[in-house]
Specification:
Mean pLDDT: 93
CATH architecture of the largest domain: 2-Layer Sandwich
Number of helices: 12
Distance between the termini: 55 Å
CATH superfamily of the largest domain: Bira Bifunctional Protein, Domain 2
Shape: elongated
Largest sheet: 8 strands, mixed
Radius of gyration: 26 Å
Number of domains: 2
Strand order of the largest sheet: 1-11-12-13-16-10-9-4
Order of helices and strands: HHHHEHEHEHEEHEEHEEEHEEEHEEEHEE
Strand content: 15-25%
CATH class of the largest domain: Alpha Beta
CATH topology of the largest domain: BirA Bifunctional Protein, domain 2
Number of strands: 18
RNA sequence: GGAGAGAUGGCUGAGCGGUUGAAAGCACCGGUCUUGAAAACCGGCAAAGGGGCAACUCUUUCCUGGGUUCGAAUCCCAGUCUCUCCGCCA
C-alpha cells in the first residue's frame, strides 16, 4: 500500500517507477480523489466542531440546530466514504515500487545473474528426472494422489518422506542455531485482513484456496506461504526499536491454486497445489532492509552450500518481481534432467509496503513512530529441494545418495534404494 | 455445545449520560539530589487524520457495527473475541 502523502509529493517519479513495473496508473484520478477527500474532511470537521460546541454550551435554543447539523454530517460522511473507498481500492491494487538497483524489464528475460555457485556433476549416464527416480523407487506416487485428491498433488513415501522431513528439520535447525531466527509453528489458515496485509488480497484472490464458510464476512484462506502468517505477527503493533530486528522461521505446507500456470510443469512435483516450504521473515527498521536482504539471501544460499547443490543467484527484473517486493533475489538450483536452473528460493525486501497495509509500526529512540520494513524469503522450498537432491545425488542404478549434511537427520539411512 | 464474566492508552486498571483523551500504578523520557548509580522528589509521556513554513490548531478513536440523546467509554440492539465452570474431544 502506498502512502498518499508520498504520492502527492512525488507524482512524476511515482508514475515513472510504476511504469518500470509495467503498471500504468491513473494518476489524475488519484489526485482528484485525494483532493475531494481532503475537501470533504475539512467540511465535515467544521460541522463537527460546531456541533460539539453546541452540546458543550448546553444551550437548549441551539439543540434544534445541532440536529440539523447531524443530518448534514451524515450526508457528507457517506460521500466521504465513497471517495475514500475508491481511492483505497486504487492504492491497494498498485504494486510496490522497485528500488533503484533493480534492473528494468518486462519479464524474467531481463533478470540479471549475479553468480553461479557449486560444481555441476558430470554424470556418465543420462540422469533421470525426479519423478522417474521416485516412481521407480516406489516412493513418489502421483497417480494415487490424483485418485484421492486431484491433479498436482503427490504421495511421498518411505525414505523419501523421511528425506523430506530431514530437509525441513535440517533447514530449520540451521536457521535457528546459526542464523538467529525464532522458530514458529503458525496457523495454516489466515483471515481476509491478514491476506490483505501481505498483499495476496485483493488482487490475487484467484490464486488462493478459500475455505468454504457460511459466514461471508469471515473469510478464511489456506496460506499460500508462511510469509503471510509470519509477517502478520506484527500486524497492528507498535514495536520498540530495541526489539528489532525480529526474525522468524517456520516450516509449513503451502497451498496454491497456481491459476494461469496450467500446462506448465505438469509432470512431477515442481509445481504442486500443496508443498512444504521453510520460510524466513524479518521485521526490521526500514533503512536496514537492503542489508537484511543480503543477510537473508546468504542464509538461504548457505543451505544450498551445505547440501552441495549447484545453484545460481539471480536479481529479478522489475517485471518479474512479486506484488509486494521492492527488490528480489531468486536462487535457482541445478536440475540435471532438465539441464537448467530452477527457482528454489525467492528472497524479497518489501520496504514498508506491507507494513502500511498491516499497520505494523515501531518507535525509534527519538520516540518517533514509523512503519517497519518487512522481508521474506524461502530457506528453502522443501519440495523443490527434494527434487534437487534426488536428481543431483542419483547414481546410475537409480539409487540416491544421502547428502552429508542430512545424515544426522536420516535415521542411519545413507543411501536410498529399493530394498 | 450449555451457564456465567469481561473487552478502556506500551502494560495493569478506575470511570457506568455532560470540559474524560480518559484517574491511579507500572514501564519509559527529562530534571533536582549524588563522586557515579540506586532511592526519593518534580515534570513529561496515546494513535490516526485534516489545516499551517512553523509555533500550533482542529477532528476522530475507550472491541466492531447500528440505535437513543443537544451530548455516549458510560444507556439499548446485533456481532466478534477473551476468560471461568460444565460437557465433548486429538
Amino acid at each position: 500500500m502506498h502512502n498518499i502523502k508520498d504520492i502527492r509529493k512525488n507524482l512524476d517519479s511515482f508514475a515513472k517507477l510504476l511504469l518500470k513495473r509495467n503498471v500504468k496508473v491513473a494518476i489524475d484520478k488519484i489526485v482528484q480523489l485525494d483532493k475531494e477527500n481532503r475537501n470533504l474532511i475539512q467540511k465535515k470537521e467544521l460541522l463537527e466542531k460546531e456541533k460539539k460546541d453546541i452540546s458543550k454550551s448546553k444551550d437548549e435554543k441551539l439543540f434544534k440546530k445541532s440536529k440539523d447539523i447531524s443530518i448534514e454530517i451524515e450526508k457528507i460522511s457517506s460521500d466521504l466514504s465513497l471517495i475514500k473507498n475508491e481511492l483505497d481500492d486504487i492504492l491497494s491494487s498498485l504494486p510496490n515500487l522497485p528500488l533503484a538497483d533493480v534492473p528494468e524489464g518486462k519479464d524474467e528475460s531481463s533478470n540479471v545473474e549475479i553468480k553461479k555457485y557449486g560444481k555441476i556433476k558430470n554424470f556418465d549416464f543420462k540422469p533421470k528426472s525426479h519423478f522417474e527416480l521416485g516412481n521407480n523407487l516406489n516412493m513418489l506416487d502421483f497417480e494415487l494422489a490424483t485418485k484421492t485428491t486431484g491433479s498436482r498433488f503427490v504421495f511421498v513415501k518411505n525414505h523419501l518422506a523421511l528425506l523430506e522431513r530431514a530437509l525441513s528439520n535440517f533447514m530449520i535447525d540451521t536457521h535457528i542455531n546459526k542464523n538467529n531466527y525464532l522458530e514458529v509453528s503458525p496457523p495454516l489458515i489466515a483471515n481476509e485482513n491478514t491476506m490483505f496485509g501481505t498483499g495476496q488480497l485483493p488482487k490475487f484472490e484467484n490464486d488462493q484456496f478459500e475455505i468454504v464458510s457460511d459466514d461471508k464476512n469471515d473469510r478464511k484462506f489456506l496460506i499460500p506461504t508462511a510469509e503471510v502468517i509470519l509477517t502478520n505477527m506484527v500486524k497492528d503493533k507498535i514495536l520498540d526499536v530495541k526489539d528489532l530486528p525480529l526474525r522468524f522461521v517456520a516450516s509449513t505446507p503451502c497451498f496454491r491454486k497456481e491459476a494461469g500456470s496450467y500446462g506448465k510443469d505438469t509432470k512431477g512435483m515442481i509445481r504442486q497445489h500443496q508443498f512444504y516450504k521453510v520460510e524466513l521473515v524479518s521485521i526490521v527498521e526500514p533503512n536496514s532492509c537492503s542489508e537484511e536482504l543480503e543477510r537473508m539471501t546468504d542464509c538461504a544460499t548457505n543451505i544450498l552450500d551445505q547440501l552441495k547443490l549447484p545453484y545460481r543467484k539471480v536479481l529479478l527484473s522489475s517485471g518479474d518481481m512479486g506484488f509486494s517486493a521492492e527488490k528480489t533475489y531468486d536462487l535457482e538450483v541445478w536440475i540435471p534432467s532438465e539441464n537448467k536452473y530452477r527457482e528454489i528460493s525467492s528472497c524479497s525486501s518489501c520496504g514498508s509496503f506491507q507494513a502500511r497495509r498491516m499497520k505494523a509500526r515501531y518507535k525509534n529512540l527519538k520516540k518517533e513512530i514509523n512503519f517497519v520494513g518487512t522481508l521474506n524469503g524461502s530457506g528453502l522450498a522443501v519440495g523443490r529441494t527434494l527434487i534437487a537432491v534426488l536428481e543431483n545425488y542419483q547414481l546410475s542404478d537409480g539409487t540416491i545418495e544421502v547428502p552429508e549434511a542430512l545424515k544426522p537427520y536420516m535415521n542411519n539411512v545413507e543411501k536410498i534404494g529399493k530394498n
